[in-house]
Inverse folding.
């Protein structure tokens, strides 16, 4: 196997910080955009060619989908952090143990989650007060999606390995290919075969499997330090413990937060199917709004992980500040654009008057608060990069789960206005932002980095 010097990897322990972060984050941003196209195209196709109820069925499943994959995403995140640290330290033997342990564990976990997801889908949908008019199609969509989670595992784990060694370009290329395939299959299944929400679900899982299969084919045929070999495919107990320690808090936080959003969705669903569809449109659009922040947070995590392995604390501090500045500027531009063209964007999904009303309402209420997530996500990514996964988990669980649910419970009994229900997300973001700043100010990066 080759050492860490390769044309397909990026050593972020040297060179201009803003150039390294930008060069790494831009492919991630493009990849995240195409990743969002999977579900967004599903929504646009069913909203325009099947109907508002089908749109509600697809969009209302977002919290459940993220709940199902949350723990697995945590595993890939932990693997990426650990691999990046070994890469920065030039520790190839442990890097290889980490890649094979993560892949083997990911296969097992994805199969378990697929089975559980298929079985509990009807129960989860009933718990979130899904309107009867969309219930049947929502069950169909989620059960098919659950059975296809293995393909999602292939792509996400393969991408995590490549990102850990600084390669954010090849996952982008494969994702572009699979996104185009997803669009084509959506139209074929819905327009040609008239298979409705089942068709868009099949299109999504087939496309995910294709992108994942391509990445794994490359990893198995590579001679680089992070390549895969069947003879090495086993679980190293010590490595797995470290992967879980780094990734489980983030995965658990993501899964539990998404599960709590099932209850947020139930508040929205109580206002009717049009409200359900409108909230789903907001969720799809807001996912694009937050992409610059998510991409920079992922870049910062890898940057910090590599420099933690190389023991360069001052470079870590400068990298976090640079990442915050870049992502804040980009996010403000994106939010301004979304806010100016809100109505036209909602009409892309569905032109029903009630759906349009709720979609515009939710977007204009919530999107202006998205800059709060710049701090939340980038700081959390940096903390995970230095190995502190518990602090962001605790802060986010308190803000996004406990505090948000208390707020919604209280406000729903004080008023019947959907306005106060709709801002449940920003309220949680604000609390998280405040707590994150308090933690950083109290502990300080110097003290955290000194523990490396």
């Amino acid at each position: 196997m080759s050492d860490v010097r390769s044309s397909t990897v990026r050593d972020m322990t040297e060179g201009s910080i803003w150039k390294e972060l930008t060069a790494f984050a831009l492919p991630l941003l493009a990849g995240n955009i195409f990743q969002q196209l999977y579900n967004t195209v599903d929504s646009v196709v069913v909203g325009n060619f099947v109907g508002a109820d089908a749109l509600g069925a697809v969009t209302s499943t977002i919290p459940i989908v993220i709940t199902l994959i949350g723990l697995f995403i945590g595993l890939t995140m932990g693997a990426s952090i650990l691999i990046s640290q070994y890469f920065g330290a030039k520790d190839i033997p442990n890097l290889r143990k980490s890649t094979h342990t993560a892949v083997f564990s990911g296969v097992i976990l994805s199969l378990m989650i697929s089975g559980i997801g298929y079985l509990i889908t009807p129960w989860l949908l009933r718990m979130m007060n899904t309107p009867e008019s969309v219930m049947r199609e929502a069950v169909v969509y989620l059960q098919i999606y659950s059975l296809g989670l293995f393909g999602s595992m292939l792509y996400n784990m393969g991408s995590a390995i490549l990102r850990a060694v600084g390669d954010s370009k090849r996952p982008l290329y494969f994702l572009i290919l699979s996104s185009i395939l997803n669009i084509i299959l959506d139209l074929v299944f819905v327009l040609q075969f008239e298979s409705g929400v089942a068709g868009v679900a099949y299109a999504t899982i087939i496309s995910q499997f294709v992108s994942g299969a391509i990445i794994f084919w490359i990893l198995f045929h590579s001679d680089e330090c992070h390549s895969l070999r069947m003879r090495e495919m086993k679980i190293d107990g010590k490595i797995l413990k470290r992967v879980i320690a780094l990734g489980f808090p983030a995965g658990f936080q993501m899964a539990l937060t998404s599960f709590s959003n099932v209850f947020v969705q139930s508040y929205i669903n109580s206002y009717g199917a049009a409200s359900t569809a409108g909230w789903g449109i907001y969720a799809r659009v807001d996912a694009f709004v937050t992409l610059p922040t998510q991409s920079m947070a992922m870049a910062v995590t890898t940057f910090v992980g590599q420099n933690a392995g190389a023991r360069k604390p001052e470079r870590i501090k400068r990298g976090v500040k640079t990442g915050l500045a870049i992502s804040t500027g980009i996010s403000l531009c994106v939010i301004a654009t979304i806010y100016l063209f809100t109505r036209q964007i909602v009409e892309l999904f569905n032109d029903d008057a009630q759906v349009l009303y709720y979609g515009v309402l939710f977007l204009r209420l919530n999107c202006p608060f998205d800059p709060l997530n710049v701090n939340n996500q980038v700081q959390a990514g940096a903390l995970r990069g230095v190995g502190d996964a518990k602090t962001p988990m605790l802060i986010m669980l308190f803000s996004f789960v406990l505090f948000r649910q208390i707020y919604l419970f209280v406000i729903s009994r004080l008023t019947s206005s959907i306005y106060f229900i709709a801002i449940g997300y920003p309220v949680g973001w604000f609390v998280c932002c405040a707590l994150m700043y308090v933690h950083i100010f109290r502990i300080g990066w110097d003290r955290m980095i000194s523990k490396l």
About this structure: The CA atoms of residues 148 and 205 lie 5 Å apart.
